[in-house]
Amino acid sequence: MEDLDQFAELGISKLSYPILWEQVAPESLDNPDWTWTDERIARLRELGIDPIVTLLHYGSGPRYTALHKDSFAPHLARFARIVAVRYPWISG
Fold first, then answer.
1. What is the pTM of this model?
2. Which helix (H) or strand (E) holds 54?
3. For position 59, what pLDDT does the model report?
4. Which of 4, 43, 63, 92 has the most CB atoms less than 10 A away?
5. Where are the chain's structural domains?
6. ∠ CA(36), CA(40), CA(46), 5° rounding?
7. Plot region of 16 (φ>0 → left; ψ -120 to 50 → alpha; else → beta)
8. Angle at 70 (CA atoms; ends 64, 21), nearest 5 degrees
9. How far apart are CA 82 and CA 84, in angstroms?
10. pLDDT by residue (tens digit) across 1-25?
11. What are the backbone dihedrals phi and psi of residue 13, each rounded to the nearest 5 degrees, phi first?
């Protein structure tokens, strides 16, 4: 969290920031854990920094899917929608 304050002190208004599928929903999209993400995204908002959201770490995703599986794209789309609904103020 201190890093976010330091970015704000630099006058940064936009920042690439992770909301990683594999971190938020490592076991299932039905049971996401938003604890870490909610705290940091709220702090970014308080600081007036617009996050440019990253949903995957180099395309890896959680263990229950993989790039070569037919389920990957629909699951990623579902996660993206869940993120958009949870944080409707994020534009990037």
1. 0.89
2. strand 50-54
3. 66
4. 4
5. 2-86
6. 150
7. beta
8. 40
9. 5
10. 899 999 999 999 999 999 999 999 9
11. -110, -15
Task: For residue 91, give the amino acid letter.
Answer: S
Residue 52 contacts by C-beta under 8 Å, 6 or more apart in sequence?
14, 15, 16, 17, 92
Q: Phi, psi (5° rounding) for residue 17?
A: -145, 140
CA atoms within 13 A on the CB side of 72: 13
Sign of torsion, CA 92 5 19 59?
positive
Token pair of 54 as six digits: 């990253």
pLDDT in tens, 35-88: 999 999 999 999 999 999 999 987 678 988 888 889 899 999 999 999 999 999
Q: Which amino acid is at 65?
A: T
The amino acid at 51:
P
* Alpha carbon distance 60, 62 (integer Å): 7
Q: How far apart are CA 92 and CA 63, in angstroms?
A: 26
